[in-house]
Amino acid sequence: MHALLIIDVQNDFCPGGNLPVSDGDKIIPVINQLSPFFDCVVQTQDWHPLNHTSFASNHPGKSPYDTIGLPYGEQVLWPNHCVKGSRGADFHPELDTLHASLIIRKGYNPNIDSYSAFYENDQTTITGLNGFLKEMNVDTVFIAGLATDFCVKWSALDAIKNGYITYIVSDAVKGIDIDNSVELSVKEMCDNGVEFIESHDLLRLLKK
Ligand code: VGL
Ligand code: ZN
């Protein structure tokens, strides 16, 4: 069984949002073409309380994109984004959400950020996604969404750790790109066994 994981296609990560990925919305038509062909579609939703530790505004003297040390490791500080219940946290209105059977919210613990769809950034606290996919007999995951260098990358690396054949749909992801982080992330994913496929090749396979 194959699953499509749609990571964080939310207003705040699209142009006009609080942590916009440039051209973040351009991937939406690509994702919308793919999702009807999957029996298992999962969406994730970044979902932070206002006092979240990843927000620079909660660390006096710090600015967005500074880094700090937290008990679980280094943390990039972000502008306030995806505050739970806010319009910025909503899925982008153009995203077709009809086919999703599960929506995983992540990042709601004020003290831990959560990039990956599988584990919070302490690499220990689970979201429940692995259990769901295993029970659904999913062996292969295709990942789309935002952002290539953060939530997409962490999700892909954890998918590999959990034993899934893992593909990134290369024209269905976009990155934030801090200090060449997109290129470095692509390399790190390749080095760890993540495969890349273009949506038109994937569609051809799915339509067979
Ligand atoms: C993300 C930074 C902070 C992402 C989420 O979805 O990639 N990036 N929170
Ligand atoms: Zn976040």
Provide structural commentary.
The protein is α/β, with parallel strands linked by helices and 208 residues long. It has a single domain, classed as Rossmann fold (3-Layer(aba) Sandwich). 23% of the residues lie in helices and 22% in strands. The protein has helices spanning 28-34, 129-135, 148-161, 181-191, 199-206; strands spanning 2-7, 40-46, 67-70, 73-76, 102-106, 140-146, 165-174, 195-197. It has a six-stranded parallel beta sheet, sandwiched between helices. Helix 3 (148-161) runs parallel beside helix 4 (181-191). It starts with a strand and ends with a helix. Bound molecules: pyrazine-2-carboxylic acid and zinc ion.
Structural topology:
Blueprint: E1 2-7, H1 28-34, E2 40-46, E3 67-70, E4 73-76, E5 102-106, H2 129-135, E6 140-146, H3 148-161, E7 165-174, H4 181-191, E8 195-197, H5 199-206
Parallel strand pairs: 1-2, 1-6, 2-5, 6-7, 7-8
Antiparallel strand pairs: 3-4
Bound molecules: pyrazine-2-carboxylic acid (VGL) and zinc ion (ZN).
